[in-house]
Amino acid sequence: MSENQAAYPIATMCRLLGVSPSGYYAWTKREPSRRRRMDTALVAEICASHCASHGTYGAPRIHADLAAKGIRVGRKRVARLMSVAGLAGVSRRKFAHTTVQGGGRQAPDLVDRNFTADRPNLLWVADITYIPTWAGFLYLAIVLDAFSRRIVGWSMATTLATALVLDALNMALAMRRPNGVIHHSDQGSQYTSIEFGHRCREADVRPSMGSVGDAYDNAMCESFFARLECELLDRRRFKIQAEARIAAFEFIEGFYNPRRRHSSLGYLSPIEYERHHAATPDAHQPAAVLPAVKDKPCGRPQIGAVLDRHCARRPHPRAGRGGRMAPPGAEQKNATNKEDSMTSDQIP
Question: Which DSSP helix (H) or strand (E) runs through 203?
């Protein structure tokens, strides 16, 4: 009625809506109720939390943020106020991923899709992804601790040389100084290279590799890359690679590690989860992780089987994650080189 009083008389609108004019005028002069004032204050806190998460948090994580500040409120109320304020968390888009590579396995699978760890530096998972820019792809390699989902090592480069994964591994080793940690990855040529194998032996790192073309064998890394795409890459466009480097650095070190809340960690960030474990190691409970899927519905391809079944990853003309086409001359992540065809006893 207030919005349309310039076009229609108040008395006419009151008669049509079945209310009295005196009741309407009393409502316009009435002070906001206590509930309305509380909702207004909560909306301000919700907007601040949503902005601090770069617009990625939904109702569950914002509810955890409010609880950490000592604000007791129901999650459904948070969801209602977010809807009224026009706020929403980001959601993932589903893409088809393809990883095809020839050659034999260079290391056994020591994980077998069981990504649980009861302490830090017991299991690391690693992989490479693509960040598209107008000037070409920027490649990002990460090393993630399965215990807390913290990114303990990362590296970025414009080429897919072995140095990309070596720099990420060296950063993780310098930061954590592990003893006998398992390093799990796919069978990309960077991880099966002789240079990478030498570095693992020098640092007492136990390499582990999943099967070819099976994202479930490295599901924890794929989960991080899905968050990276959903919360950063799908929401921004980068003109130059330097801009993408800064954005990736800010996401990992400025948001993901110190502040990004994980439902599997009791809505704690990776750093907070490790601090909580260090303070109360006896009360620690292993983090909830993706369940180990032993077999796909139609079974895992056997040795020597042709990867043309419905459960296998088929070759696809799209390159990179999310179906983004690589620029002319872009390198293939899992390109076969001479080192891939060497067995472990041939490596010097």
Answer: none
pLDDT tens-digit map of 67-117? 888 888 898 999 999 888 888 888 765 543 434 444 445 788 899 889 988
The pTM is what? 0.61
Residue 143 lies in a domain: yes
Cα 56 to Cα 119, 121, 236, distances in angstroms: 29, 29, 13
Cβ-based neighbour number of residue 121 at 10 Å: 18
Co-location of 133 and 212 in the same domain: yes
Q: What is the CATH number of the domain that holds 310?
A: 3.30.420.10
Express each pLDDT in 174-213 by its tens digit: 999 999 999 999 888 899 999 999 999 999 999 999 888 7
pLDDT of residue 325 exceeding 80: no
- Residue ending a domain, among 37, 55, 85, is 85
In 10 A of CB 322, how many CB atoms?
18
Contact assessment for residue 238 and residue 134, using Cβ atoms and an 8 Å cutoff? yes
Domain stops at, among 62, 85, 108: 85
Residue 151 above 70 pLDDT?
yes
132 in Cβ contact with 192 (< 8 Å): no
pLDDT at 88: 86
Q: Strand order in 182-185's β-sheet?
A: 150-157, 136-145, 123-133, 182-185, 206-209
**CB-based contact 137:330 (threshold 8 Å):** yes
Q: Report how far residue 8's alpha carbon sits from residue 16's, in angstroms, rounded to the nearest whole number.
A: 11
Same domain, 80 and 163: no
Classify the phi-psi angles of 110: left when phi > 0, otherwise alpha if psi is within -120 to 50, otherwise beta: alpha
Number of domains in the chain: 2
22 CB burial (10 A radius; 0-12, 13-18, 19+) = exposed
- For residue 12, give both structure tokens: 């006419």
Range of the domain at 264: 123-346
Among candidate residues 245, 242, 246, 226, the one with its CA nearest the CA of residue 234 = 226
- What span, in angstroms and rounded, lies between the C-alpha atoms of 347 and 338? 12
Residues 193 and 285 in one domain: yes
Rounded Cα–Cα distance for residues 163 and 156 (Å): 10
